[in-house]
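Hey L., structure's done. Input below.
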Amino acid sequence: MSTRLTFTVLLDWVEGRLDRDTASDVADLVAHADAETRTTVDWIRQFHHDARLLPLVAPPADLSERLRALFPAAVAPHAAEGWRDAELLYDTRLPQAAAGVRAGAGAVGEVAHLAFDCGDLRLVLEIAPAGSGRVDLRGMIAPFTAQTRADVWLVGPVGPVRASHIGPSGTFELLGVPEDVDELRITEDSRRVRMALDLRLR
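Output:
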């Protein structure tokens, strides 16, 4: 296995979800790891210790009702109405960009760059390979006002897949996204924009 111990691997090791051989390898690596890795392991163990000390108490009935009332607002970005469709301007995987600008088609597995426009909002998106059937997405919207709340949503064949807050510079990052995601949606104040995606790099 790789000698790079990610947080996920360390968490699975501490919680006993690894097979015997992998767990043994991780234990050996942790024993000789740097201070940062050992600190991460200590933090995970402390978290579990503290969690066991916290009593589980059912919330008051009125609070439960208020939380349930918030659910429709949380899924509202996926409603079918009120969306504007952005136009694809550029895709480096195509022999010719949608706007008529020549774009060299990249080799299989290389990074792709796309640009979308819907009049008052433009999105540029980078698609990079991230393992079998998955990609990393990095994007930026413009114009963007840092004081507004903006989110990006990914939608697949069976519904919402992932969401992320758009940072103060108008940028966002979503890692390990399934290739079958076929739509990206952006909500910013009253703006609701969506665009069709093809995340396949091959």
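The chain is about 25% helix and 30% strand. Helices lie at 7-14, 20-31, 35-53, 61-75.

-- N.
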